[in-house]
Amino acid sequence: MSHASSPRMPISRDIRINGGAAQHVIPANEDSGAAASVAAAGLVTVMGFDRNDVLFRSDKVGSVQWRDSKGELVAILIRLKPDIWGFCHKGDDDWAEMIGRYGNPDS
Q: Are residues 46 and 67 in the same domain?
């Protein structure tokens, strides 16, 4: 099923930070290679359910945060160095310390 044939699929993906200006927009029907594999140093790609559903792509990602259905921060993936990532979640002993250092609980 293509994106265009589904009335529930959005026409574009709009990534906003704290309600500000769009940081990166990828049209859902873009065939110009947005979904193609890209080999670049430090590149982070956020995918939808389909391998061709690219939601966001950037080499400037420092952390990725997950929230539950209530909007509460429950996990964070942190880029510590260019090729070293750390992961912590709400049940970890050092959760409060990691959120203090790397988290953004108000986003």
A: no
Region for residue 74 given its phi and psi (left: phi exceeds 0; alpha: psi -120 to 50; beta: otherwise) = alpha
Q: Does 30 reside within a domain?
A: yes
pTM reported for the whole predicted model:
0.60
* Tokens representing residue 4 in the block: 């265009």
Instruction: Indicate whether 107 belongs to any domain.
Output: no
Print pLDDT tens along the chain (107 aa): 444 444 554 554 555 544 444 444 444 444 444 445 567 888 998 889 888 888 999 999 999 999 999 988 899 999 999 999 999 999 999 999 988 888 775 54
Is residue 12 located within the same domain as residue 48? yes
User: What's the domain range around 19?
Assistant: 3-58
Question: Do 77 and 45 fall into the same domain?
Answer: no
How far is it, in rounded angstroms, from Cα 95 to Cα 13?
31
Q: Which whole-number Å values give the CA distances from 70 to 8, 66, 74, 83, in the listed order?
A: 23, 11, 10, 32
